Predict the structure.
Amino acid sequence: MSGINRHCEVTQRWPWQSLHQMTIDKCLMERAGISLRSELQRRSMRLILARHGESTGNFDRRLQGQGDYPLTELGREQSYRLGHRLAREKVAAIYSSAISRAMETAEIVGEVIGLAPQALAGVEEYHFGELSGLTYPEIAERNPEVLAGIRSRESTYPAYPGEEGREVFRRRVSEALTALGERHPEETIAVITHAGPIVTFVSDILGRPYVRPVPFRMNNASITIVESVQRPDGSSRRLVLQTLNDTCHLEGERTGGNESTL
């Protein structure tokens, strides 16, 4: 086991092609019982971002957005596994999007680790406007140009009638999670949210524009860990992406996909 010495810290200089290898290394280290915190002992706060378990909307391949869809039986099982994974992290508080699939996941996690989840405004999924709740065949029938945009190789996201707006979305997610860090400056906090908010926040940390294609995915019940680390000279803090889309606790389960590339 001493040969496993790679770090899972990701900075803006981390090559994109290494993201998959990072996840593999993380799983190996989890099984070996090796801590990933080594050189991050100067951290001031750990933010664990977890995507909700599989919902009926995921299963039906709907454009869920801010619609309410309950968890499937698989989603509930994923949520219990997520809870047992987070039980090892000394979580001080659980926050959640108020959307039902996230809150249901958070309640199961809270049951496992003994904490009641609190609703957190600002970390809800992107609002897709008039097409929210539709399946892909329904989108093709009602608004074929949007489906063509989804399938295109353009870097810009397709325009959805009545949508929230990408910059508005990016700003609200960033403000909500930044404020949470200020509220819990030296604690480990879990936030149960959605693929879109995690992707946009990670993109900000990596200095990457919020455009397509997204070079990583967020599976159902995966965890992504961000640490606020004090710089060696004590001048300021920086955000470090420590773990991305960790699904080691879900091994053997089918895991869901990612709406954030739509």
Notes: Residues 16-27+38-128+166-261 form a domain with the Rossmann fold fold (CATH 3.40.50.1240). The mean pLDDT is 84. Helices lie at 19-32, 56-59, 73-86, 100-113, 136-142, 144-151, 166-183, 195-205.
